Amino acid sequence: MVNRVLLASPRGYCAGVERAVETVERALEHYGTPIYVRKQIVHNAHVVRDLEERGAIFVESEDEAPAGATIVFSAHGVAPSVHDVSARLGHGTIDATCPLVTKVHVQARRYAAEGYKVVLIGHAGHEEVVGTMGEAPEATVLVESVGDVERLDFPPGTRLAYITQTTLSVDETGEIILALRRRFPDIHAPKKEDICYATSNRQWAVKEMLAEIDLLLVIGSSNSSNSNRLVEVARAGGVPAHLIDDETDIDEAWLDGVGTVGVTSGASAPEKLVARVCDWFRAHGVDSIEPYQMVDEDVTFRLPVELRRELALAESQS
Predict the structure, then answer these.
(1) Has 128 been annotated as catalytic?
(2) How high is the pLDDT of residue 53?
(3) Any idea which fold 100-183 has?
(4) What is the Cα gyration radius of the chain?
(5) What would the CATH number be for the domain defined by 15-97+301-317?
(6) Where are the beta strands (DSSP E) in the chain?
(7) Are strands 288-291 and 56-59 parallel, antiparallel or unpaired?
(8) Domain boundaries in the chain?
(9) Which is the catalytic residue, given 62, 127, 128, 135?
(10) What is the rounded average pLDDT for all residues in the chain?
(11) What percent of the chain has pLDDT over 90?
């Protein structure tokens, strides 16, 4: 029977997610409804539903937003072709791409402009990868595994550089980078790793608590890359783990023979979902719910420049 719940730290919202969600909220306040958002602003079903209730309209493609509409691009980033379509439609665009993703886009453009073939480590089809590959599609090749690295074949003398998706497993990405360096010793590396601080910190926090827990619950939506990586980290460490959207996904059968449950949340999951999971355990007789270590993150990002200008102008005229 579960007698203790440990809460990982850090967990939940990262600075890029906070910025993206606040961008949509502030845009709704300033411009009124509707505000269009291309794709999910962040990969969390609860966040999307909350913003829909406030008047945001989520579209799969920028060309679904009417001409002249205000549209927000999600935290995962978009390809240059998306900006081109919105420009033709006369959209008022607000780019909520996480600054750490923007850094990877800049690297991709720079490497391609300097004549490098760019090896992008990431997951095919993920919105961040689609956007990054769109920066230099002719110069970029995607690898998802060590096996993909072994199959790479470039003409002699090809100048190579690698970049990575920001929400990958630190350990798995390290193995892929080692394989790249083994096959291509002269491959050029980013000056600073691309996996974001929040992704690394949340994986580190899970590893730290594995010796103390019998089961890990990761709060996050199924399309959240960083949330899925937290599940994988626990399982790789020998601890059963499950991804849940909220407390309604908890299967009591998972708790058979479990004394201590660890709880964490992906970088796009709001803290209110953690509180709801804690309430579920309290309702099931668990009195000991406590943080495992306490680590503060003090990273913040300013709102997108387009929105800051508008808000500053409105304030000066009021």
Answers:
(1) yes
(2) 97
(3) Cobalt-precorrin-4 Transmethylase; domain 1 (3.40.1010)
(4) 21
(5) 3.40.50.11270
(6) 4-7, 35-38, 56-59, 70-73, 92-95, 117-121, 140-143, 160-164, 215-219, 241-244, 260-265, 288-291
(7) unpaired
(8) 4-13+197-291, 15-97+301-317, 100-183
(9) 128
(10) 97
(11) 95
